[in-house]
Amino acid sequence: MNKPPSQAAAPAVPGSADGRSARWQSHREERRRELIKSARLAVHALGSDASMEEIAAAAGTSKSVFYRYFGDKAGLQQAVGEVVLSQMQRRIGEAAQSAQTPREGLLAMVSAYLQMAETSPHVYTFVTRYSAAETDSPQRSAAMSGALGHFFESIGDMIATPMRTHLGDGKEAVIGYWPTAAIGLVRNAGEQWLSTPASPAKPDQEAMARQITDWLCVGIAPELDPSGSR
How many Cβ atoms are within 10 Å of 61's Cβ, its own excluded? Predict the structure, then answer.
């Protein structure tokens, strides 16, 4: 009985492996975005101290899934932080572009910063007050610190640009140092305001933005004037 001729293996289609790899990578990236969004919603509802297990439960999955995609809680904080800080940076930049003067630009940026932080204070705290002790990876801690540093560095550039145009030449000392000092004031005052319990003495977001802008532009000299003149 004659045996049928053996069939040669079908030749590999060029690019098929690459196509599968690209689809798998796209699937992973989409899944990662979904997990980041779910984690953000969970932290918003549960608080900045929510555990990985609580975050995973709120997302309708297991914490092992989060560990697989982010490594540890610090990795999740870094991933959420990159998204949140990027959105804040874009919103602050848009606010500054509509201003007519450097002072108006400062007020717009401070207002946008406070507004976004106040919208979800738990998420803001989650991404800006990470604990290096929650990870055994110095690289992870450095990455999160770098994300924050890049965010505030970008805001510093937004502040410096209109100042350079307004002040002209010969003011490099002011332009070089003041924006960094201004960011420190805005961040520290803003975070203290954010963590202060509501009370009649606590300014609302608009009043706080104007107060911080006044401190940036004229300091507390008017408060120190014994004559009470403004």
Answer: 15
Please check whether residue 76 is in contact with residue 123, taking contact to mean a CB–CB distance below 8 angstroms. Answer: no
Question: Do the Cβ atoms of 43 and 80 come closer than 8 Å?
Answer: yes
Give burial (CB, 10 Å; 0-12/13-18/19+) of 70.
buried
Higher pLDDT: 165 or 207? It is 207
C-alpha gyration radius of the chain: 25
DSSP characters for the chain? -PPPPPPPPPPPPTTHHHHHHHHHHHHHHHHHHHHHHHHHHHHHHH-TT--HHHHHHHHTS-HHHHHHHHSSHHHHHHHHHHHHHHHHHHHHHHHHHT-SSHHHHHHHHHHHHHHHHHH-HHHHHHHHS--GGG-S-HHHHHHHHHHHHHHHHHHHHHHHHHHHHHH-TT-HHHHHHHHHHHHHHHHHHHHHHHHSPP-TTS--HHHHHHHHHHHHHHTTHHHH-TT---
Tens-place pLDDT, residues 156-201:
888 887 777 777 667 777 788 888 888 999 999 999 999 999 999 9
By the 8 A CB rule, do 86 and 149 touch?
no
Structure token digits, residue 98: 């509509």
* CA 200 from centroid of its chain's CA atoms: 30
pLDDT in tens, 8-21: 555 555 566 677 77
Q: In whole angstroms, what is the distance from residue 202 CA to residue 222 CA?
A: 20
